[in-house]
Design a protein that fits this description.
The protein is mostly beta strands. It has 1 helix and 6 strands. Strands 1-2-6-5-4-3 form a 6-stranded antiparallel β-sheet, with no helix packed on it. A hairpin with a 3-residue loop joins strand 1 and strand 2.
């Protein structure tokens, strides 16, 4: 019997570099005013900027609303467990 995956799809909507909605999110790994790190259906997403906030988190729907000034989005296929002071995750994103 084949395993059936429930995929919602992944979408990033950003308005004026200030507020946005990200769907297809399975976990919020970390966040602070300069970075938000999300695990999505398309890999790990790093959002960099300033005054960043996670306003609404609905993991049942896989949605995250953010605001602040967004400077960049970066995707990685790395697994979140590979982070650490000397881990590959930390070397790539710092």
């Amino acid at each position: 019997m084949e395993e059936v995956r429930n995929t919602r799809g992944h979408k990033v909507t950003l308005n004026n570099r200030g507020s946005g909605l990200i769907t297809g999110v399975s976990a919020v790994i970390s966040f602070d005013p300069n970075e938000i790190l999300l695990e999505t259906e398309q890999g790990v997403l790093l959002i960099k900027g300033s005054d960043l906030n996670v306003n609404k988190l609905t993991l049942e729907k896989g949605e995250v609303e953010v605001d602040g000034r967004v400077d960049s989005f970066t995707y990685s296929d790395l697994k979140p467990g590979l982070k650490g002071e000397n881990g590959l995750f930390n070397r790539l994103f710092k």
